[in-house]
Write a structure and sequence with these properties.
Length: 57
């Protein structure tokens, strides 16, 4: 599997969740911390990539 797929999937999933929460609710913390949530989604995808790499070895 390409090592760029899981980090990209993490970013896409977090972004979709943030957009959905932003559209359906009146919460303001989403706008304040959206970049932090997107970066954490990317890092979570990188962590998943490393964990899946270990299981194959």
């Amino acid at each position: 599997m390409n090592k760029k797929i899981l980090p990209a999937a993490g970013i896409i999933i977090v972004t979709i969740i943030l957009v959905t929460i932003n559209e359906l609710t009146e919460l303001t913390f989403i706008k304040d911390y959206a970049l932090i949530f997107i970066i954490s989604g990317m890092l979570f995808g990188v962590l998943l990539t490393k964990l899946s790499g270990r299981s194959k070895e």
